[in-house]
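Usage example:
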Amino acid sequence: GAVVSQHPSWVICKSGTSVKIECRSLDFQATTMFWYRQFPKQSLMLMATSNEGSKATYEQGVEKDKFLINHASLTLSTLTVTSAHPEDSSFYICSASTGSYGYTFGSGTRLTVV
Amino acid sequence: DAKTTQPPSMDCAEGRAANLPCNHSTISGNEYVYWYRQIHSQGPQYIIHGLKNNETNEMASLIITEDRKSSTLILPHATLRDTAVYYCIVRVPPLGDKIIFGKGTRLHILP
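Running the assembly step on the lines above writes:
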């Protein structure tokens, strides 16, 4: 079945630095990918929709200059958290549309900013 | 997309059938019902989907009422590994548009 690989699975960074998270579709082409953020005990919150070859569409309240999304190929989308702060610590998840199954999700990235 | 309503939490004894309800009274004729689950610290996992007929796969069964206003996900023999948050989502294919997740049902399987 369709697999989405997300890396890294966890990362710890210092406040003020930037972190890049990769999301790859391994056996299919993903024209559209989605990025979510999840805080403890809460549901997934959609951050942005990433379209190959064009600018991402951000949800209301999500800072596009802070959360940079690049979808340069049909198999790779990246999320860069710039100038990270402790409040950016969260679980980040990507997904891609895959036909009848709907969506396949990455395994998530646990970001801790210290 | 139609709005869904799920109980916030449920308990089920290990080995018994877990029946998770979902209300989607505003579902339109071309919207499918999808179920996903999220085990702690993992990405969501697809379980099953259906339009109006009952569906069964190796993971679960989906029972959709005749008026399509509600559905039930059935895990026939729940195990501890089925402890997760279960999300019911209604959508119109073809897919490619965003999914907005509700709060889901937190299922606890009790030993």
